[in-house]
Amino acid sequence: MLQYASPAQEEWRRSADPIRTFALRDDLEGLRDRLVDLGILDAGSAGFDDVDEAQELLDQAFTGATEALAAGHASAGDHAALVDLLLELRELNARLRGEREAGRVAALGRVREAMGLLRGVSTVEQMMERGPVAAAHLGFDRTFVSSIKDACFVPYSCFVGGDTEWAKAIVRAGQEQPRKLDRRLLETEMVRRRQPLRVLDAQNDPRVHQEIAKVSMSRSYVAAPIVVQDRVIGFVHADFFFAKRLVRTSDAELLWMFAEAFGSAFERIAAGEQLRVMRRTFQRAMAETDATFAHICDRELSFESTIATEPARPEGPLPIAGTPPVPAGAPVPTELADLLTKRELEVLRLMAEGATNDGIAQRLVISHGTAKTHVKHILRKLRAANRAEAVSRFFQLRGEH
């Protein structure tokens, strides 16, 4: 996991991952007393109820015991006590691992409950809008879901318990000042490594999104990448602002589990939307075909007409959902029709309107990669060096200079 920290804010307390097994907690307290008797720990050491602190205690005890044995100065009685201590440390380490594993199982249950809030969502838009609410169900005070648009980190929706206006302000700050995903931004590491992020001093770290940090006033947050079809398409961020708690490693792991489940659900819903668009397009094409067939079959025959005459129909591909209709009086030049496929002609028309690859993908309900591939094929077939040259060629062939 990626972790970034500056001097911790004094008014924010360290988060604790408590040991829930009372017997293990009691045994760790007994170990602490024995370590004090053996001179490995100071007498004023506090108790250990937190999993991370307990692990530090065990590591410190193991180091102290092995160093004492290696020194060779211990009496026979102390030597036996140190050997017993090492055996006990091994057993306590195993129990502590079991405690961590139980925590992960509980976290999976919380993720399952959070994803249950998205049950019934049928569109990508609904998914993005409700995502922060579901993430907050994990126990965070504030959450927001963002997307990657034109290689920029752009917030989409935010949840702030009891303050919708503040949530809107956080989203607005990110949308009005989008940040490029370059080496100066921490979120870029999530795209590159596909690991969660943990930040302990957001206000003083120059690599965070400064505009969002200023409006949100966040001190410590975690974030995780949303991966769809092996590509990072966005992020989920969360913090404990109202509780004034610094995030811990387990918080980042919990959010990461949620982001993975969210990405899988997102992919399924997006595929469903594409199928619905394809079904509507097919039904519309079939209806048009039926109407044309009926028109031909129902015509009265006469000497002035022949069966072979076809009714006039617009040139070019049928419009599909999300794309503009073919402009009137703009037939496809023969040279273009011979060079390009119907889909490539649609992409070229959208390029002529100034659409980006993302815009083309959204209008034609295809992936960003597919849109990019179509553009590449168009440039090669038209022998154009760039998009502007291809569009210019398009207008020239249509007789528009």
UniProtKB/TrEMBL annotation:
InterPro entries: GAF, GAF-like_dom_sf, Sig_transdc_resp-reg_C-effctor, Tscrpt_reg_LuxR_C, WH-like_DNA-bd_sf. PROSITE patterns: HTH_LUXR_2 (PS50043). Residues 333-398 form the HTH luxR-type domain. PANTHER family: DNA-BINDING TRANSCRIPTIONAL ACTIVATOR DEVR_DOSR. SMART domains: HTH_LUXR. This is LuxR C-terminal-related transcriptional regulator. Keywords: DNA-binding, Transcription, Transcription regulation. It comes from Patulibacter brassicae. The keyword DNA-binding applies. The keyword Transcription regulation applies. Gene3D superfamilies: 3.30.450.40, Winged helix-like DNA-binding domain superfamily/Winged helix DNA-binding domain.
